[in-house]
Write a structure and sequence with these properties.
This protein has helices spanning 3-64, 78-89, 114-125, 158-161, 169-175, 199-250, 266-289, and strands spanning 97-102, 132-138, 141-151, 188-197. The protein is of the alpha+beta class. A 4-stranded antiparallel β-sheet has the order 1-4-3-2, sandwiched between helices. Helix 1 (3-64) crosses helix 2 and helix 6 runs parallel beside helix 7 (266-289). It binds heme C. Residues 74, 77, 79-80, 83, 100, 102, 105-107, 110, 150, 152, 154, 156-157, 159-161, 168, 171, 175, 180, 190 line the site of heme C. One of its GO terms (cellular component) is plasma membrane. This is histidine kinase. Keywords: Kinase, Membrane, Phosphoprotein, Transferase, Transmembrane, Transmembrane helix, Two-component regulatory system.
């Protein structure tokens, strides 16, 4: 096996191993980063929903409770305020979603989809669980969801969610007596579910990955070519010429010109040693002949 082949095989093996390891590590890091970014967005949206809920309870409801026996205003209900506000957000951010998915909801638009019902059941079964996040494939692309349990922590909630006879009649007039009742204190009745699209951050990560790998391959190609040229100029060509000359000299052919001893590298030292050996040999031969 020639020097060049050996050299290139080792170079290629090192590169392939480096390419695989770097590819795997950078892909993992970029994907993780994209997911963390989306998770951060989802948590921010969740906080925004909680802020709207708190605002409704603290600043809107107190002004309107007085007239609630005449007309029930859903605008005073935190769940309604949060759902409506984040619905507005969807005008500009279509794939973002917020839902107060509830197993037995007052407003039927809060009915859970199957996967949301699964989340609620898992919150019900594991009281210590405060958050579930995950990913789903939908026709509009991959979504990341974050869910928090909705637990009935205050007896005040039961005024409107226990039995229809204790609920405000004005509310029953709008929502009817069939849904959203029978909730118990400390029960998990539903889950706040935020969905955030992942396609753009994932595509950005994939793009960054492609650019990085192509640059790495380009750097390797340049290194490969430069090292091969250096190998040719500095080692293979002079060594091939030296060995051809040594062949000739070994058969008694001293017509060859001396080797140029340019430079201070190992090949130049070899060339000067060869020249000296050749001169000694030539003298020795002349002495024998003479
Ligand atoms: C004054 C009556 C009233 C009180 C008190 C009340 N709710 Fe409601 N709640 C409603 C109404 C009405 C709706 C439906 C709003 C809509 O149209 O989206 C609702 C909706 C909800 C929803 C969304 C699911 C669904 O049923 O449509 C949740 C979750 C919820 N309430 C939780 C609570 C919690 C927790 C409390 C106590 C902190 C509470 N509610 C107190 C009247 C009330």
């Amino acid at each position: 096996m020639g020097l060049r082949l050996k050299f290139n095989l080792v170079l290629l093996a090192v590169f392939l191993a480096g390419f695989a390891v770097t590819g795997y590590v950078s892909r993992t890091l970029l994907d993780r980063h994209a997911r963390e970014q989306v998770l951060g967005e989802a948590r921010l949206l969740m906080e925004a929903a909680l802020a709207v809920r708190a605002y409704t309870v603290d600043q809107v409801r107190p002004h309107l409770v007085g007239q609630m026996d005449k007309v029930f205003l859903p605008q005073t209900v935190p769940a309604f305020a949060a759902t409506e506000t984040l619905q507005h957000l969807r005008r500009n951010y279509a794939n973002y979603a917020y839902k107060e998915a509830t197993l037995n909801p007052t407003n039927l638009r809060d009915r859970p989809a199957d996967w949301e019902a699964d989340l609620i059941h898992s919150f019900r079964n594991r009281a210590e669980q405060k958050e579930i996040s995950g990913e789903r494939d939908t026709p509009t692309g991959r979504l990341l969801y974050v869910a928090h349990p909705i637990r009935i922590e205050s007896p005040a909630c039961l005024q409107c969610h226990s039995t229809p006879d204790v609920a405000p009649p004005s509310m029953i007039r709008i929502y009817g007596p069939a849904n959203g009742f029978g909730w118990k204190l400390n029960e998990v009745v539903g889950a706040q579910v935020v969905s955030v699209p992942m396609s753009v951050p994932l595509e950005n990560a994939a793009q960054a990955f492609r650019t990085f790998m192509v640059s790495l391959a380009a750097v390797f190609a340049v290194v490969f070519v430069v090292l091969n040229l250096l190998l040719s100029w500095l080692i293979i060509r002079p060594v091939t010429r030296l060995s051809a000359a040594a062949d000739k000299v070994s058969t008694g052919d001293f017509e060859q010109p001396e080797f140029p001893e340019k430079g201070g590298d190992e090949v130049a030292v070899l060339a000067s040693s060869f020249n000296r050996m050749r001169r000694s040999l030539e003298k020795a031969m002349q002495m024998i002949d003479g």
